[in-house]
Amino acid sequence: MAKKKRQPPHEEHEGEPWLLPYSDLMTLLLALFIALFAISQTDQTKLKQMAQAFTAAFNSGGPSFFDAMGPNPGRRAEMPSDEDAGNSAYIQENQSLEEVQRQMEEYIEANNLKDKLTTELSEDGLMIRIKERALFPSGSAQLVAESQKIAPVIAGLLATLPERVVISGHTDNVPINTAQFPSNWELSSSRALNFMKYIIAQDARLNPRRFSAVGYSEYRPIASNDTDDGRQQNRRVEVFIARNYRFNPNESVTAAGGGNGNPNAKATGNIPSTGGSSGIGATGDSKVGSTDDSSATGATGGPTMGGRAYTGDLPPALAN
Q1: Most buried among 123, 190, 232, 245, using CB within 10 Å?
Q2: In total, how many domains does the chain have?
Q3: Which is it for the CA torsion 67, 69, 73, 79, positive or negative?
């Protein structure tokens, strides 16, 4: 009887066993990328609701892991969500201030005024600092010819903004005693008032209700008065544009400062302070040792002193 030939056992290919774990790995990677894409597109409102649901389900009054979760505040500033609609006003205002600063810096660069004008943008607002020699002769509040070039530029930029503006005068610690200026209080306040009135006269779009003038004498130095260079830096006029909005990652930002003359707006009191808190307002009432900036006086309908229209030492075109 013939014997049946046995077929040799089937031998698996050498590389075949790796296919199964490889396919599993590819499936897991695909699921991972789908999950990452879904997370990047998640609505922040839905994410917050989901976090609250997990917190309620897994925690019993203790601190939750989800409490620390949330979008990056810096990223929210760039791409505000529906939940962060209140901060969009802050972002828009910040962009406007940055644009004004950029234009001012371009003007300074084009006219070689770096040694006379500087700008600084902070959380309080935009500050434009003008050194004394660009506006006034030494010991005087009479505007010089160069101020007639600078003031229209600043007025044009201010006309594009709704924020309130505080113009402050500063001196060094060298005493002055003349018939017109018995002390640095009168000199600093007169300079601030004259420059404010001159700026308002440059552009009909400027609302005087937005403006305040204040004199700080020698009590808000930005440099040491022990050197000539320091005293020169301290003799200045500052144009401060105060922010109306604050960025808050948790709550909607509310308007402040009454940029459009709105009596219901809330003031933030964000006039910057660089030292002592003494000030003399445009009405001539001094406040020494005060802890706020209430000495700044508004210029509704133009500056006044003693209840009468104030002209001060202005150029002949404005004195009338």
Answers
A1: 190
A2: 1
A3: negative
Q: Is residue 1 part of a domain?
A: no
Query: Would 223 be classed as within a structural domain?
Result: yes
Q: Is the dihedral of CA 56, 62, 65, 66 positive or negative?
A: positive
Contact between residue 167 and residue 213 where contact means Cβ atoms under 8 Å apart: yes
- From residue 54, give the alpha-carbon distance in Å to each of 40, 65, 72, 241, 265: 19, 10, 21, 46, 40
Q: What is the pLDDT of residues 66-75, one digit of tens each?
A: 454 444 444 4
Is 50 inside any structural domain? no
- pTM confidence score: 0.56
Instruction: Report residue 15's pLDDT band, with 50, 70 and 90 as the boundaries.
Output: low
Structural domain contains residue 313: yes
Residues 134-167 have pLDDT tens digits of 999 999 999 999 888 999 999 999 999 999 999 9
Range of the domain at 129: 87-319
